[in-house]
């Protein structure tokens, strides 16, 4: 009888530890961009890091592929995305200027792009509200 009670007590303790451990794990949060178009595309991502505007690129996405472009909880309400097809026949762009570069880049600051050796790209704005994670689909 004592062994059965002890086994139940240990089982309940292990279960409670599992629940507490699960609660202590950070929630997954991210920003994904998915290519739902028929084009192979390059994408770039822009955001404010609390001090500066930052642009990052490039992620290459074939049709149907997704990329996680930001791997932490979303702290802002607005983020920015730019995309173009490999053959430059199709664009996902907008009115929000960020700096870009032909090679992979992380660029701090969104002004004086040309004088810093970059070019300017117009990103489109995405309002994520209070979401901690988000997916933007590029569609035709």
What would you say this structure looks like, in words?
The chain is α+β, with helices and mostly antiparallel strands. Helix content is 16%, strand content 43%. The protein contains 1 helix and 10 strands. The chain has one helix at 2-24; strands spanning 31-35, 41-48, 53-61, 66-70, 78-85, 91-92, 96-100, 105-108, 119-127, 134-138. Strand 5 and strand 6 form a beta hairpin.
Estimate the helix proportion, in percent. Answer: 10-25%
Mean pLDDT comes to 86
Distance between the termini: 68 Å
Structural class: alpha+beta
Given the C-alpha coordinates, what overall shape results? globular
Number of helices: 1
Percentage of β-strand residues: 35-45%
Q: Give me the Rg, rounded.
A: 22 Å
The topology string of helices and strands comes to HEEEEEEEEEE
**How many strand elements?**
10
Low-confidence stretches: 1-26
Largest sheet composition: 7 strands, antiparallel
For this entry, give a set of tags.
7-stranded antiparallel β-sheet, 16% helix, alpha+beta, 43% strand
Topology, please?
Elements: H1 2-24, E1 31-35, E2 41-48, E3 53-61, E4 66-70, E5 78-85, E6 91-92, E7 96-100, E8 105-108, E9 119-127, E10 134-138
Parallel strand pairs: 1-10
Antiparallel strand pairs: 1-4, 2-3, 2-5, 3-8, 5-6, 5-9, 7-9
Q: Quick recap of the structure?
A:
The protein has 140 residues and is α+β, with helices and mostly antiparallel strands. It has one helix and ten strands.
């Amino acid at each position: 009888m004592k062994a059965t009670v002890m086994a139940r007590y240990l089982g309940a303790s292990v279960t409670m530890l599992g629940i507490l451990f699960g609660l202590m794990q950070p929630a997954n949060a991210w920003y994904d961009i998915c290519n739902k178009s028929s084009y192979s595309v390059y994408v770039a991502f822009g955001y404010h890091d609390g001090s500066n505007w930052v642009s990052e690129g490039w992620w290459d996405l074939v049709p149907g592929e997704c990329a996680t472009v930001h791997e932490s909880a979303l702290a802002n309400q607005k983020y920015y995305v730019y995309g173009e097809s490999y053959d430059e026949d199709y664009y996902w762009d907008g009115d929000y200027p960020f700096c870009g570069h032909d090679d992979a880049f992380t660029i701090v600051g969104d002004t004086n792009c040309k004088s810093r050796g970059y070019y300017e790209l117009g990103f489109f704005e995405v309002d994520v509200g209070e979401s901690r994670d988000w997916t933007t689909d590029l569609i035709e």
